[in-house]
Design goal:
This protein is mainly α. It is 82% helix and 0% strand. It is built from 5 helices and no strands. It is flat.
Length: 142
């Protein structure tokens, strides 16, 4: 008897590896940028980049968790013509952005960290996603 492999398992494994790569690359890229700013004696900029990087990483983790929950809910309703999206999905997305906005406000207002440094730290996630995509293009599925 021949066992037919599940077509999505390989894609899921590849996606999981890419998600892990994006998560650690976010911290590595942001940490490197903060270290460079710190070595150049720009302490507030280094703190801002580091805080923005931490927020970007947290945002990515929360987004991944929300999407995993959404996928699980839709897989459970695979036979339905119009699947029901749980209300908590929308609430979680709004809370995620609200939490990031509140954290940026508090860090900027109370700790006097330059706003541009926070934005630069938040951009570490985009840089990590691009780096992970280039890696996938050059190395393919492993």
């Amino acid at each position: 008897m021949t066992v037919i492999p599940h077509p999505n398992r390989e894609a899921e494994a590849l996606g999981t590896n890419t998600e892990r790569r994006i998560a650690w690359l976010t911290l590595a890229i942001g940490g490197s940028a903060a270290a460079i700013a710190g070595m150049r004696e720009h302490g507030l900029w280094a703190a801002g980049v580091l805080a923005g990087t931490g927020l970007a990483w947290l945002n990515f983790r929360l987004l991944r968790r929300a999407l995993d929950g959404l996928v699980a809910a839709s897989m459970a309703q695979a036979g339905r013509e119009k699947p029901h999206v749980p209300g908590w999905t929308y609430f979680a997305a709004a809370c995620r952005y609200g939490l990031i906005g509140l954290a940026v406000y508090v860090i900027f207002e109370y700790f006097q960290v330059p706003l541009l440094s926070l934005v630069a730290g938040l951009c570490a996630l985009g840089a990590a996603a691009m780096a992970a995509s280039v890696y996938e293009i050059l190395h393919g599925a492993e």
